[in-house]
Amino acid sequence: MADSSISKFFEKSLKERLDLVADFSGLSQDELKIIEDATGGISYDKADSMIENAIGTFSLPLGIATNFRINDKDYLIPMVIEESSVIAAASKAAKIARIHGGFKAKSEQSYSIGQIQIVNVDVQSAIPKVIGASTEILNLANSKSNTLSKLGKGAKEVSCKEIQTDSGHMLIVELVIDVGDAMGANVTNTMCEAVAPMIEELTGGKSLLRILSNYSTKRMASASAVFDKDAVGGENVVDDIILAFQFAENDPYRAVTHNKGVMNGTIAVANATGQDSRAIEAAAHAYAAKSGAYRSLTKWAKDANGNLIGDFELPLSVGIVGGIIQHHPIAKICTKILGVSTANELSCIMAAAGLAQNFAAMRALVTEGIQKGHMKLHARKEGKN
């Protein structure tokens, strides 16, 4: 079985690092050449086909976090990030988590939420009409995706809610769509636009916005781990980490910085695999405020043996088919390095990376302070200039 616990990976040469990653992931020589290419994997022509008004490309560092064991499987985790110490910290955290079996993670479904806004309508009389026509609405939505229908996926549920605004009452019709291994934005938007005229006819109202929600609460991912008290630095350090968590849990000024650190891990993996990082960030921070106050995305406690227990949960919309992955060779190669076979598996990895990074940051904060590691790596960078 492949082992992600690689001793002194940071001391190895580029060739040695690439050889280890290639052996672990089965990368070809052509794929290794793409990684080594200083353009970051895409030419100007490719960039020009992806965005408007292109004038060039912009590269960020791509690194590998080692030591990760998630659900009893080892991973080398590609991370794209410009910030010093994140990859080293995540790798060290994963090494400590391995003592008690690594990370346990879950991501059980890939349901996207599409919304159709109906205005100029009697909401209370419209809702039963829409619900009564659910089968017809779902059939029409599913006619817009042969691929999902053949896989037994697609639009599964219609629901309605009323919202009150300064402009009056509005009806929001929501489609729940199983998008499988895709991020699903395009198919969700297509289905919403397709059913909007039928909903207008049913309700007598006017459809305005017809678009997915990035608050992907039906695509939850979670990760947990036990961090050995002795490897953490003793039970006093465990207690201090819990106190640091309580600070973030009860003060939004600390919580924002705390959660930024969590997302250093999750978003670095998102960047490497071509995910919509803006959507992921927006959903995560909305979830942090679900109680009405902005709080920590992670939870920390102590078990009966004095070990530190960490939990992380967030709405996480990701895909391994379609989107940037089919256009960007580096994103495709990074997905291959991970060896994931489903979007749910990728979600588990991203959640574990976020939890690892949060542990590492808090441990540094309550012991040596965050600057020692940062400054050491900054000095290393300056020495290379």
TrEMBL record:
<dbReference type="GO" id="GO:0004420">
    <property type="term" value="F:hydroxymethylglutaryl-CoA reductase (NADPH) activity"/>
</dbReference>
<dbReference type="InterPro" id="IPR023076">
    <property type="entry name" value="HMG_CoA_Rdtase_CS"/>
</dbReference>
<comment type="similarity">
    <text>Belongs to the HMG-CoA reductase family.</text>
</comment>
<dbReference type="InterPro" id="IPR004553">
    <property type="entry name" value="HMG_CoA_Rdtase_bac-typ"/>
</dbReference>
<dbReference type="InterPro" id="IPR002202">
    <property type="entry name" value="HMG_CoA_Rdtase"/>
</dbReference>
<dbReference type="InterPro" id="IPR009023">
    <property type="entry name" value="HMG_CoA_Rdtase_NAD(P)-bd_sf"/>
</dbReference>
<keyword id="KW-0560">Oxidoreductase</keyword>
<dbReference type="Pfam" id="PF00368">
    <property type="entry name" value="HMG-CoA_red"/>
</dbReference>
<protein>
    <recommendedName>
        <fullName>3-hydroxy-3-methylglutaryl coenzyme A reductase</fullName>
    </recommendedName>
</protein>
<dbReference type="InterPro" id="IPR009029">
    <property type="entry name" value="HMG_CoA_Rdtase_sub-bd_dom_sf"/>
</dbReference>
<dbReference type="InterPro" id="IPR023074">
    <property type="entry name" value="HMG_CoA_Rdtase_cat_sf"/>
</dbReference>
<dbReference type="GO" id="GO:0015936">
    <property type="term" value="P:coenzyme A metabolic process"/>
</dbReference>
